Amino acid sequence: MGVSSAGGKTAPVHVLTERYDRGRVPRVRRVQPLVRPCKVKRGVRLIDDAHRVEHVLASLLVESSPSTHAMRRNVGESPVLGLKFARCRVRRQAAKCSQVQLLSPRMRWNHIIALLGVFVACLEAHSVERRRRRCEDALIRREWRTLDDEEKAEYIAAVQCMLDKPSRSNVAGATRRYDDFVATHIIQAEQTHFVGFFYPHHRLLVASFEYALRKECGYGGAQPYWDWLLDVDDLAASPIFDPDTGFGGNGEWVPGTHARPWHTMELPLPSNHGFPDRTGGGCIPDGPMPSYGEFVASSEPNAHASGHYGVGGLYGAMTDKWSSPVDPVFWLHHANVDRLWWSWQYRNLPGRLMDISGPLVSQDWTNQRGGNITLSDENLLVAIGEGTSVDGTMDIRGGFLCYDYDGIY
Hints:
Blueprint: E1 2-4, E2 10-12, E3 45-47, H1 50-63, E4 75-77, E5 84-86, E6 100-102, H2 109-132, E7 139-141, H3 149-164, H4 177-187, H5 189-192, H6 198-217, H7 261-264, H8 292-312, H9 329-346, H10 349-352, E8 378-381, E9 386-389, E10 403-405
Parallel strand pairs: 3-6, 7-10
Antiparallel strand pairs: 1-2, 4-5, 8-9
Helix pairs in contact: 1-2, 3-6, 6-9, 8-9
């Protein structure tokens, strides 16, 4: 397999011939023996020293940033040298790259540089195209109390519309469109709580609910959020629970056989449990949470869980790990949980858009999958039939998502 050299011997030839103008990076492969040297055609580069070129390209594609995370799961053995060679799917490719051929014997190094330039141009085009796709008309999510009464009524009507529309899933027991979202949360609860998927999954879930409100029920606004910090002095007095312009409060107490003494009794709370009196150090805007793993470990069982228990109490729907979305306040609560994550991301946006970690399954359970979450893992909503990669949900203002908040922490 080769071409005739000056000495009459046959030099080995390796040809790289796959066109990659649709976002596919070419693969090096062996071809049938060539009868004569290939002629230089328009749009084709003839390169010598295929071994060295392949080594450089492999290093370039595997190590290059910012596109590395989009291709890391598509690395295979090169049939030429046995090196790791990235067969990556460069998505949303902007540049039209030419067909490339690698040949030996000796030819000039400027051809090698030209080929590397093509690859660099392709990778840079991918990065530029991704930035170009950043949404220009983002939905702005606002805090519930900043909505006027008409806007609040429109949102509540859209939620009621979801309760009236028939289910679009095949989940047993799901009869209404709203049930499809509850079913998704129930089915995937064990895979999306106390694991790395917690924030990406719930970000996608809330965004999908927001999309359904707008596209299926004619809602003209964005998903509102509930900033709990505004109600710390009197949670029950929050406008979220207004009986007319909110989601209702506790209602009137109806005594009955369920009202046993130990359910209704009031007990004094001791003021001193051995902790010294302190006034606190105030708000810590940055927090000792430099990594995603530390952030989720601190916020999921505290700020997130407190919102659920604060509304649901001991036995309410919001307290249930699986079926908490049956309470419509869930969506406003989790929109603020997402806002909390975005506030943390925004403080170091370039780095934290790619900062993800954590186990795939809770440490309380055993599972054969094991391992840790990565940006290329699939982020799915099984009962709704939607999904993207984890990478697709890291940025709320580009790629798969397109919304923002009226303010962050």
